[in-house]
Amino acid sequence: MIRHIVTWKLKAQDDAAKAAAVAAIAKVLEPLVDVVPGIRSLDVRQNVAYFEKNWDVLVIGDYESLDALDAYQLHPDHKAAAAVVREHVTERSSIDFEV
Question: Start and end of every Stress-response A/B barrel domain (predicted)?
Fold first, then answer.
């Protein structure tokens, strides 16, 4: 299994706008579990501590294999979701590893 973790810095600066951005990101990413083959789970979460140095939001995704993660990246529904995410973020980091 491959775990894919992505973190983002949000464009939003105030708490309400950040919460709305996280909700929008979760709304487009989390349902992909039921759409894209090979995804075991997707979980979007907002940072709750050390705001001055931590990233604002993350997604943790578990995939059956690296091939499944690759297929997810190319899937049209993921590409559409990623476009929504890009509307809300300024920076991105990620890491992928075997579990």
Answer: 2-97
